[in-house]
Automatic annotation (TrEMBL):
Protein name as annotated: DUF948 domain-containing protein
Residue stretches spanning the membrane: 6-23
Keyword entries, A-Z: Coiled coil, Membrane, Transmembrane, Transmembrane helix
Pfam families: DUF948
Coiled-coil spans in chain: 26-60
Top-level lineage group: Bacteria
Range of residues in the leader sequence: none
PANTHER family per UniProt: UPF0478 PROTEIN YTXG
Lineage of the organism: Bacteria, Bacillati, Bacillota, Bacilli, Bacillales
Classification via InterPro entries: UPF0478
Amino acid sequence: MIIVYISIAIVVLSLVYLGYIAVNNLKETKKSLTDLSETAARFQEKVDKINDETNQLTETTSTISNGIQTKKETVQSVIETAKASPEPFKKLFSSIKNTPNPQRETSDSQLTEIGDKLIDLWGRYRVKRKTNEAE
């Protein structure tokens, strides 16, 4: 009969040890699950921040793209206008060139007179210098 009592005691001790191990495993599992949940929450926060930054970057890229497109259209319209402009400018310049300028004519005659006076003055200076050298 002792063998039966010893067997029952071993079974009871085994069940108590099994309960102890199960409780310890449950505590460790809860701790691990809590850590895993916290890690998942931090990971989700980082993913949310990345998504927000991605959305901001997309908006900024779109704004820059629209600005570039607007500026491109403006430059193209200026270029088209500039390409169409030479003919009217050529006509304007040719009409300006063909228009008589009374001030220019008078200044040309004045320049001729001044030039003649300078030549006469130079000639007199040379004559005076030669006479001074001869004396």
